[in-house]
Specification:
The chain is α/β, with parallel strands linked by helices. The chain has helices at 2-22, 28-46, 51-55, 61-68, 70-73, 89-100, 166-179, 192-195, 221-228, 259-265, 285-298, 313-326, 347-352, 357-370, 388-396, 406-411, 434-437, 442-466, 492-495, 503-506, 510-518; strands at 120-122, 138-140, 149-151, 154-156, 182-184, 200-205, 233-239, 251-252, 273-274, 304-308, 332-336, 378-382, 401-404, 480-485, 488-491.
Length: 526
């Protein structure tokens, strides 16, 4: 339709030029503007830099005009993210600029109120260190893992094929391949678009067991083992819950379930796909730990772990007790914060259910430390990690590495139109309409994904160096401060209790004692 309108404009412009040449020079008054608009429309269709212009020739320029006058409008507009919560427009601008390779320093000082209650800041050192030439990597793999993997500090978080277009998946995985970081498949199965570029994969399996699913919806161990053996698969992950909507499963509208997606997910074509809110393969903490160990075995010894949005501390402590009694543990745990985004979630879930990433990370980290398990389990953080400072904060709160979804979507062209569930995404990121998806140029967006990850990690290393740190292991909670009121500032070391190794096994502190005593590895009921 849009291409047809440009074609009509070209024909009308040509007719106007012909009339000006053959009938009267007065026709040039209308012919020249029409010809310029037609040329602009043709250029928009053939250029590959802007997906919006390829899908919306000519009229799409209005968006870029508004971007140019952003500073004057900024105080009147609040950018919104997928789940309806405010997303800092300055952060979004940083992400866009880094993805485009035009990251630059801004004049003048901060526009934030540093005396506002809740303001946080990292503590610089009087003796800064040189920035490391190479970013450190995180070894994933405990004593039961025979194929450990060295994870980058920042990786692509879980986003499924089906929710995202084939071109978006190609760009994300291509960026991961070029930059040497990992790409989480999301729970929608592992498609050829995840495999073709050759990027490292974390294969996520959710409650629907898509891609390793029997006809009646159970886990298919043989199919899982066959696919997990692929050399691109570096880790396997079991999704327990998602930050934006913990306690309910994902939904993919039937309009987006074409033949290809149906084949990847092992589901019927054209029918809405709903993931169950719970797993069939386990019902107790002990069974969960046994199943993660089975996933590791079926994958040939690759790192296996799970992802969750933290809820009850007692339930997670029950999982820790199961690890101790079973004598095995996941190689990694990904903590998804309640502030994480999604293309579709009930607003009440997005706004009211789930633990924010800060508290979730600190809970998981402390529980593993107190149970004497932290040295064998790595922690990933997921939830609004968009800048180097975000990453540093999560590292000192207990994470070993971070995953980014929203920022990576910005890199491949997302403009937060909030039409993910309608199959009419204007930039081709979250649609299965081939005409819309083709607007997303894979080559250009692949480079943007790589640039964003590299620039963000470089920023994190530069920040750490300014704090007198060259390795994430040197970071500590005393290096992050929060303003409690206009006169009071406290460090995270003071704000939260930090357990010592094995403390829960020896003598649980008063604040943890009741939860630890009630935790039962054979039930999630606490």
């Amino acid at each position: 339709m849009r291409t047809g309108l440009v074609g009509v404009a070209v024909l009308v412009a040509a007719a106007g030029v012909a009339a000006a040449l053959a009938v009267s020079p007065w026709w040039w008054i209308g012919a020249v503007p029409l010809a310029l608009l037609a040329l602009l429309g043709v250029w928009d269709l053939v250029q590959r830099r802007h997906s919006v212009l390829r899908n919306y020739p000519v009229i799409g320029h209005a968006r870029f005009l508004l971007e140019r006058i952003r500073p004057e409008l900024q105080q009147y507009f609040v950018e919104r993210n997928f789940d309806g919560r405010p997303f800092d427009r300055d952060v979004r601008s940083i992400v866009y600029e880094r993805a485009k390779g035009t990251d630059a320093e801004e004049p003048y000082g901060t526009e934030r109120d540093v005396y506002q209650t809740g303001h946080e800041f990292l503590v610089p050192s009087m003796a800064p260190r040189p920035v490391p030439e190479q970013p450190p990597r995180v070894r994933i793999g405990g004593p039961d893992c025979t194929q450990p993997y060295d994870m980058a500090l920042l990786n692509v978080s879980a986003m499924s094929f089906g929710s995202l277009s084939s071109n978006a998946i190609l760009a994300l995985n291509g960026g991961a391949a070029a930059g040497g970081f990992a790409h989480d498949t999301g729970e929608g199965g592992m498609s050829e678009y995840h495999l073709r570029p050759g990027g490292d994969l974390v294969w996520e399996v959710g409650t629907g067991y898509f891609g390793c699913r029997t006809r009646d919806g159970d886990f298919d161990a043989r199919e899982f083992a066959d696919k997990a053996a692929h050399p691109n698969v570096k880790c396997v992950s079991l999704k327990l819950s998602q930050g934006a909507k913990p306690g309910i499963g994902g939904v993919l509208p039937g309009a987006k379930v074409n033949a290809e997606i149906a084949r990847v997910r092992d589901v019927p074509q054209g029918r809405t796909v709903e993931s169950p809110p719970y797993h069939r393969v386990f019902s107790t903490p002990r069974e969960l730990i046994r199943f993660v160990a089975r996933m590791r075995e079926l994958s040939g010894g690759k790192p296996a772990g799970f992802k969750l949005c933290v809820g009850s501390r007692g339930q997670f402590l029950a999982v820790c007790k199961a690890m101790i009694e079973e004598g095995t543990a996941p190689d990694f745990i990904i903590v998804d914060g309640a502030e994480g985004g999604t293309g579709a979630a009930p607003l009440e879930f997005a706004d009211n259910i789930g633990t924010p990433l800060t508290e979730g990370l600190i809970t998981v980290h402390n529980a593993l430390v107190g149970a004497g398990l932290r040295d064998r389990v790595r922690i990933g953080a997921s939830g609004k990690i968009a800048t180097g400072s975000d990453l540093v904060k999560r590292l000192l709160q207990g994470a070993d590495y971070g995953n980014a979804a929203r920022a990576m979507m910005f890199a491949v062209g997302c403009i937060q139109a909030q039409r993910c569930h309608t199959n009419t995404c204007p930039t081709g990121v979250t649609t299965q309409d081939p005409r819309r998806a083709r607007a997303l140029d894979v080559g250009d967006k692949t480079e943007r994904v790589t640039r964003l990850q590299q620039a963000t990690v470089a920023s994190a290393l530069q920040i750490m160096a300014s704090m007198g740190v060259t390795d994430p292991a040197e970071l500590g909670p005393h290096m992050l401060r929060r303003r409690i009121d206009p006169q009071t500032v406290r460090s995270y070391d003071e704000l939260y209790d930090w357990l010592s190794p094995g403390q829960l096994l020896a003598e649980p502190p008063a604040d943890w004692a009741a939860d630890w005593a009630a935790a039962d590895p054979d039930t999630f009921t606490v």
